[in-house]
Amino acid sequence: MGMRKVAIVGAGITKFVRRAQETGKELSWQASKMALDSCGLTLDDVEAVTLGTAPDAFDGVHMKGEYLADGAGAFRKPYMRHYVGGGTGVFSPIHGWFHVASGLADIVLVVAEEKMSSCHPHPQGAFLTIFDHTTEQPLKPTLIWIFALEMNRYMSTYGITKADIARVSVKNKGNALDHPSAQVAEKITVEDVLNSETLCWPVNRLDISPASDGAAAVVLASERVARRLTDKPVWIDGVGFSIDTAYWATRDLSYPRYVETAARMAYDMAGIKEPHKEIHVAEPYDPFDYKELHHMEGLMLCPRGEAARLTAEGYTARDGNLPICPSGGALGVGNPIAATGLMKIIEIFLQLRGEAGKRQVPGRPRCGLAQAWGDLMQMGTVVVMRI
Amino acid sequence: MVKRVAIVGIGTTGFRPVTPDVSFRELIFEAARKAYSDAGIEPSEIGGFVTAAEDFLEGYSIADEYCPDQIGAVLKPTQTIPGDFLHALATGYMMIMTGAFKTVAIEAHSKASNVKTIDDMMGFALDPVYNRPLRETPHAIAGLEMTRYMFETCTSSEQCAKVVVKNRGNAMRNPYAAFAAELTEKDVLGSEPVSLPLHRLDIAQHADGAVVAVLADDQTAQALGGTPIWIDGIGWCTDTPTLEMRDWGEAAYARIAAEMAYRMAGIANPRGLVDFAEICDEYSYKELQHMEALKFCNRGEAADMLESGATSLQGELPVNISGGALGVGHLFEASGAHKILELVEQLRGHAGARQIPDVNIGLAQVWRGVPTATGAVAILSNM
Amino acid sequence: MKLEDYELGGTHLRSSDFEKGKVLTTAWQPNLAYAWDNGVAIGRYLAELKEGRIVARVCHSCNRIMIPPRMFCELCFKPTDEWRYVKDTGTVNTFSVAHVNWDASRRGPKEPPLIPAVIEIDGASPGMGILHMLGGVSPNGITVGMRVEAVWKKPGERTGAITDILYFKPIRAAAAKSPRAAGKAKAGRKPAATRARSKR
C-alpha cells in the first residue's frame, strides 16, 4: 500500500497515583514535556496535537479537551480530542497515525490524560450515566455489575475458576514492582485476591485496577523525520478499531468479538498471519483480571477458553513464551483510563527498543502489540508495532 | 495514492426547536438512511465512521457508546470526536488520505431540547479554580469579547443587530431552518439585555436535528457518479482556553484555521476566490469578527461590508444564506454539519429559493462556543 | 531512553494532606438536568410496561425479534417491521451478587446484596437479553440458565418505567425443562461458580 510509514520516536509519562497534587493540565504538561525532551524536540517542532481522555465527569469539566488544551501543548495549533471510552489510550496513537500517514503532518504530539480523583465521593459514581438513561439507569447500576456479569458468563462458558483468573492480578501487580510509574505494585498471592473484599461477586477488590490520576504522551513522526531523530524508531505497522452494538445485553458476553475485528484490521495492515507466533510481547487491557484473558482470546493470541490455562503455566510471565503485560498493566501500574492505554503503547515502544530496564523481556522482541477496550464492553483498539 | 476526498452523500432531518416524537437514535437513523441513499451506497460498504459528540451535551458519560447502531457502524472502525462536525470531517478526511479507508461516514446531531440546564452546563466548561467561582453567566464571556471587538474595530451595536436581521431573514427561504423571522434592528436592540452589549436576540437559540455525510476517495467518488463535492482545504486550531491570556478582539483560532485551509486549497486571495461562506454567528458580532479572521475584508471593515449588501444573497460574497445559527438554530456539535449541508446543496445547485448563482467554491467555519477558543474551517468545491 | 532515568511527575497526596489543610481544594456541584425524548420504540415499550406487558420489534430481513424494541434494525439498517408481544419469563444469561451501591458506597450489614442479571426474554430471539434484577431467591440458589419470571408492581403503582417490573424471580419446579443455555451452561459452570461462591 502506498501508506506513509509512521514511527514513535519519543515518550513521556507521569507516575500514576490515587490523587495527584497536579491539575489535569499540569499532568498533561509533565508527560508532554518529557516526551518532547526524550527525542530532542520542542513545542515549535510540533505540527499538530491530539488528546485522548475519557469521561468529562471524572475531571468535572464540560468539554475537558478544551480545558486541557494548553497543558497538552496545543496553543494555536491544530488540536483535536478523540474519544472511544476505555479504549481511548490505545486509540490515541491511531488518531495521531491518521495525521502523519495522511501526509497532513510530519510531527504530531499525542497526549492522554485522566484525573479521576476530582470526581467525588468516588469516580465510580460517574459511571452510573454510562448506562441507557431510560431502560437501565433506573435500576441504579454500577460499572462493576457489567464486569461481574461478563466475568460470570466467561467463567460459566469455559469452566474457569476465580483462582485461575486471580493469577493475572498476581502476575501484573508483581510485574509492576519494576515500573517507575506504578501505583499498586505488590507481591501478592492468589489467596490474597480470593480473600479480598467481594464487591460484586465474582469480582473481588483485588480483581480490579484502582482509580488513578496520570498522563502519558508519545511523539509520532513520518519516516523521513523519524530516521533523523533516532536510530531506533518503532514503527506503527498496523492499527485497528471496532465498536459493537450498544445493546450490550444482547451480545455474547463470553467472547469480545469487537477485539477480534479490531485485531484482524491491525493484523491485515501489518501483514500478520499467525499472531500467536509473530507477536513477541503484548499489552492487552487489564482493568479487571479476567479481561486480560478475554482479550488474549479476542486478539487470537490463544484459542478461546485457553488463556487461563496458559497463564497458570507461566506462558504469559515476563520470561514466558508470550509475555503479557510486562509493564504491570492497569492492575499494577494503575488505571488513569486513557493514560493507561498510552502507557501500554510506551511499554511496547521501550520493550522493542530494549530499553525497558528490569522489565525487559528476554529474546529481543521485534514485534509487539497494545490493545485497549472500552465503552459498554464494546470497543476494541489495537496497535501493532515493530522495530 | 489518494489525491482528493469528496463528499458523495449527505442527509438530514432538518432542524426544529424540539423533537419530542423521536429518540436521538431515531433522529440520527433518519439522517443516516438519507445520506447513504443520497450517496448510492449501503452502510455495509462504508469503511469507517466518525461521530461528533460531547458527554454533557448527550447526558451520558462516555457518550461514544451509543454511536454505532443508528449509523450502521456495528463492528466497524468507528470513533467519536468530542468536537464540532468539522473536526470529525477533518478526521474522516485524514482517514481517507492514509489510503486505509475508501469511504467514511461522518455524523453529528443535536438534542439540545433535552438539556434543561444549558447555561449551567456551559458554565461547567469554565476553569473550575479561576473562573467558575465568579458565577458569571457564560454569555458574559461573549459580552466581554463583543465589547472589545466593537472597541477595536469601531463597530456599533446597531451594525451587529443587522447581522441578526439578515440571517433570520435569510432563513425564511430555508425549509430546514427553525428560527426564520422578519425582524428589524429595533427588535434586536429592544430585546432584553443578557450581558451588555449582548441582547437576547443577538444570541442564537438551540435547535434539534441530525446530519450525516459520506466521504469517499477520488476513485470511489468518480465511480459512484453524482456530483462529488470536493474537500479542497481543511484546517482547525485551538487558541488558549485560559481566559486571562486571550486576545479578546481578534478570533485567532479562526484566522489560523483558515490559513491552514487556504494553504491546502491554494487560495491566496479569499475574497476573490471564495464564492460564498457559512460562518459561525452564534452571537451576532461573531459573524463580523469571523469575516475578518477569514480575510474576507480588513480588520474593522466587516460591518461596512455587511451594510453595503456584499454579504447578502445578491452580493459579491454571500454569507450565511442558510440563515446561519441565528436563523437555523444552534446545533451543538452539528453546528458545522448544517454549514456543510448548505455548502453541498449550494454547490450542487439544489438550494431552491436561496440558490446563489454560479458558485464553485464555498467556505464553512465554526467556533465551538463559549468558553472555547477552538474553531475549524473547511473549503469545498464542485470542480 | 529509559523511564528510570527521568524524574517523573505526578505528586501523590494523602487524605491527611486534605484533613490537615495542607492542600486547598475547590468544590462544585454541577446543575445538570436532562429530559430525554423516549421516541417511538422506547415510548411504546414503556407504555406497554405500564400495562404489564413486554413488547419487542421484529425485523423481517433478519427475522430477529428484538428487545428492547427499536424502530430500525442495526444490522440490516432498515426500519423494523412489526410489534410483537413477548413473554415476561426468561432465562438467566449471567448474574452478579453486588455488595456495593452505584456510587461505590458499601451496602450496610442489614441491606441484602443486589442481584443484577442479564435475562434472555422468552419469545425474543435467542440471546436477546435485558439488564434487570433478581429477587425472591437466595444468592446461593442462582445458576446461569435458571428460569425466571417477572414480578410486577401493582397496576395502579406502575409509571411506565423499567422499574414497573420489580424484579425477576425463579420459576419453581416444573418449568425447569427449557432453553438451550441451561444444559450447556450448567455443565461448564458448576465447578467454577459453586466452589468460588462457597468462599464468600
Keywords:
heterotrimer; B: 383 residues; alpha/beta; Peroxisomal Thiolase, Chain A, domain 1; two-stranded antiparallel sheet; globular; C: 200 residues; alpha+beta; five-stranded antiparallel sheet; three-stranded antiparallel sheet; 11 strands; disordered C terminus
Plain-language structure description:
The complex is a heterotrimer of chains A (387), B (383) and C (200). With 387 residues, chain A is an alpha/beta fold. Chain A has helices at residues 24-38, 56-59, 64-67, 88-101, 143-158, 162-175, 190-195, 223-229, 257-270, 275-278, 289-298, 307-312, 329-333, 337-353, and strands at 6-13, 48-52, 79-82, 107-115, 198-201, 203-204, 213-222, 234-243, 281-283, 367-374, 379-386. In chain A, 35% of the residues lie in helices and 18% in strands. In chain A, strands 3-2-4-7-1-8-11-10-9 form a 9-stranded mixed beta sheet. In chain A, strands 5-6 form a two-stranded antiparallel ribbon. In chain A, strand 5 (198-201) and strand 6 form a beta hairpin. Chain A is globular, with a radius of gyration of 19 Å. In chain A, 74% of the residues are buried. The model of chain A has no long low-confidence stretch (mean pLDDT 96). Chain B has 383 residues and is α/β, with parallel strands linked by helices. In chain B, 35% of the residues lie in helices and 18% in strands. In chain C, strand 1 (54-58) and strand 2 (65-66) form a beta hairpin. Chain C has one domain. Chain C is 18% helix and 24% strand. At the B-C interface, helix 1 of B face helix 2 of C.
Map the helices and strands.
The complex is a heterotrimer of chains A (387), B (383) and C (200).
Chain A: E1 6-13, H1 24-38, E2 48-52, H2 56-59, H3 64-67, E3 79-82, H4 88-101, E4 107-115, H5 143-158, H6 162-175, H7 190-195, E5 198-201, E6 203-204, E7 213-222, H8 223-229, E8 234-243, H9 257-270, H10 275-278, E9 281-283, H11 289-298, H12 307-312, H13 329-333, H14 337-353, E10 367-374, E11 379-386
Parallel strand pairs in A: 2-3, 2-4, 9-10
Antiparallel strand pairs in A: 1-7, 1-8, 4-7, 5-6, 8-11, 10-11
Helix pairs in contact in A: 4-14, 6-11
Chain B: E1 5-12, H1 24-39, E2 48-52, H2 55-58, E3 78-81, H3 85-97, E4 103-111, H4 118-123, H5 139-153, H6 157-170, H7 185-190, E5 193-195, E6 198-199, E7 208-217, H8 218-224, E8 229-238, H9 252-265, H10 270-273, E9 276-278, H11 284-293, H12 302-307, H13 324-328, H14 335-348, E10 361-367, E11 374-381
Parallel strand pairs in B: 2-3, 2-4, 9-10
Antiparallel strand pairs in B: 1-7, 1-8, 4-7, 5-6, 8-11, 10-11
Helix pairs in contact in B: 6-11
Chain C: H1 15-19, H2 39-50, E1 54-58, E2 65-66, E3 72-73, E4 78-79, E5 82-86, E6 89-95, E7 97-98, E8 116-121, E9 129-133, E10 147-152, E11 165-170, H3 180-198
Antiparallel strand pairs in C: 1-2, 1-5, 3-4, 6-8, 6-10, 8-9, 10-11
